[in-house]
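Bench notes, afternoon.
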Amino acid sequence: MRIILSILFLFSFQAVSLLSAQEKESGRVRQQVVKQNTTPSVGITSSGNRVIVSNAPVGSKLEIYSVVGVKVQEREMKQAFGEYEMNIAKGYYIIRIGDTVRKIAIR
């Protein structure tokens, strides 16, 4: 009888330790997902010959490319929110700030 109780105790102890290891692992995954979703996205829009930027990391570069991929202009972001007048020809351009890329039209 003691042997059976000892075996049951060992199995139950192992099951508890496995469950706690799984809970720890799922907690890590849950924390990583929360960290990824809380990062605000960079907003890039245009109005006339102005580019309006929101939630940009301070110190990042605002890069403007023509549709064929030639860099036309580059500016350093000194504020998270800003409105920048672009002295470039009318047309379509690609704006890049960090990993965020948008197409805009300068009119």
